[in-house]
Amino acid sequence: MGEVLGAMPKQEDPNLLVGFGTADDGAVYRLPDGSCLIQTVDFFTPIVDDPKTFGAISAANSLSDIYAMGGRPITALSLVCYPYKTWPTSILGEILVGAAEKVKEAGAVIVGGHSVQDQEIKFGLSVTGLSSEGSFWTNHQPQPGHVLVLTKPLGTGLLTTAVKKDLLGESALEQPITEMMRLNRRAAELACSLDVSSVTDITGFGLMGHLYEMLRVKQLGAIIDAEKLPLFSGVWEAISLKAFTGAHRTNREYVAPYEIPQTSSLEKYGQILFDPQTSGGLLVALPADQAQQYTQDLRAEGHDAACIGRVVATPSIVVQ
Hints:
Number of strands: 12
CATH architecture of the largest domain: Alpha-Beta Complex
Helix content: 25-40%
CATH superfamily of the largest domain: PurM-like C-terminal domain
CATH topology of the largest domain: Phosphoribosyl-aminoimidazole Synthetase, Chain A, domain 2
Largest sheet: 6 strands, mixed
Distance between the termini: 31 Å
CATH class of the largest domain: Alpha Beta
Structural class: alpha+beta
Radius of gyration: 19 Å
Shape: globular
Number of domains: 2
């Protein structure tokens, strides 16, 4: 995709404050009154069987990009691919209800959308949010010495794959579904008053892929304390059953330009670090003296958050 985007004509607009050049979670455009519009889009195929739950997870995933930019979602457009000719529309109705409830929880509204006939169901949202110039976050300005806080556990890709392949029972998804449906709203709100340097949400590229995007622009590095990673129950069992997706391999290839020393911890936790997430948590870089309190505040509200490492000046990612 980088090669495709690189071939596009350069866009010159002084009001475009964040575009696609830094692989940020959303675009930021300055309006005449000084406020900023944040726009993002995401959609994917079902990862759970219940249509209403799928709609809610997909909506939370789409809204997450706005929160990762420090914005407040205001409107959303539904994106629907559905086999209208062979499937009852009642199933699509449940997907839309699940999404609408989650958008309402976020304080935003669905204002329309677009659908096409497709043999494979896909659903998501194009979301618009608001911020002000100087108060939005990006994913590529971390500061050396800042601590990395992860606000949700890892392992959704492994567990959903294990259940899909009938390697684990449906009960293995109870905790992940709860977290995938959880908005990153409070994680963003609690960070707004802190000296945050960078934020991203952890989705398809896995923790390592999104961390790589956070570090590469300024050629910085990170040290990850693998033992502190928050994990869903059942993750190690899913790994023992080899419930891997193709993204495990492609995510490793994605970060290949960076130095990642081979350590025993990388060997042990590699399948987790490169696991593609759905509606994952925020990865927040902030000063060490604020990170612990931020983590405690999140945990007090039921978030399984943890300080998982720190940013360093050397351009490599060390898992210890």
